[in-house]
Structures are given as C-alpha cells and as structure tokens.
Amino acid sequence: MSRTPIQFEIDENKADNIARALKGLIEQRHWLVSVPEYQLPRNLQAGTREHALYLTYTISIDYMTNAEKLWNKARGACKLYPERFAPEKIFAVSDKTLEVFVRRLGVRFGPSAATFTSNSPRIKDL
Question: Which of 9, 26, 67, 88 has the lowest CB atom count within 10 Å?
C-alpha cells in the first residue's frame, strides 16, 4: 500500500496571529502557558541536590491541585523550611505533621500525599 505524503498549506498571516496571541499570554502570565515549577525559590541554586529534591517532592504531591497555588506555596515553604524537602527530615516527622504540611501547601488529598511520601522507598534514596 502506497502512502501519500501529507501536504500542509501554510497561512503565514494566521501563524503570525497565533504567535502574537501566545506571546501576549506569556507576557500576561496567563494560566494556559504558565509553568510554575520553572520558578525556583530564591534560596535554591539550579541543578543542585536541593533543587532536585524540591522538584521531586512537589511534583509527587501535585495531583488534582491548583498548580499555581501549590508551587507558589512550595516556593515559600522551601525558602522558610528548606529541610522539609529533604528525605531524611521528611521521614523523621510523624504522618500527621507531614499531612498538615502538605495540606498547607494546598494538596487536595493530604492523607494520601503524606502516606505516599512517607512510604516511598525511592524518595528515601535521594
């Protein structure tokens, strides 16, 4: 069976309008183009172990949440309590303390997030 190559017609005017619209959304920090995890807390340096832990922990609890609020609160918490993102400290606190912490970050399912975090052997190895 022979395949016919797909051909596209490029509408430069339309492409230009789309690019301008996207640029406007980016400049407005619109939620459609927001990537809050790219904004590091001021006390973290990109590429460090602490940066990896911050991303790993926050991503692991980012389920059915308002991502903007979660990442905003996580940045603030990391600045005030950087130790709360270190596995050795996470596993040293009670499940209830961990649940309260993740709830304050804005996690929708606090007990589940706390249980997942405290029972995850992979996080322990970081």
Answer: 9
Whether 62 maps to a domain, the answer reads yes
Q: What confidence score (pLDDT) does residue 120 get?
A: 55
Residue type, 76: G
Split into its structural domains, the chain has a count of 1
70 within 8 A of 102, measured Cβ to Cβ: no
In a domain, 47, yes or no: yes
Instruction: Give me 81's structure tokens.
Output: 């309590």
> Structure tokens of 50?
């602490």
Chain segment 26-36, per-residue pLDDT in tens: 888 776 777 77
Cα R_g (the chain), whole angstroms: 20
Residue type for position 107: V
Tokens of 43: 């006390």
**Is residue 12 assigned to a domain?**
no
Measure the CA–CA gap between 17 and 99, rounded to whole angstroms: 46
Q: Reduced to 3 states, what is the DSSP secondary structure of residue 47?
A: coil
Residue that has been written with the tokens 């993740």 in this structure? 102
Place of tokens 């609890």: 61
Tokens of 110: 């606090």
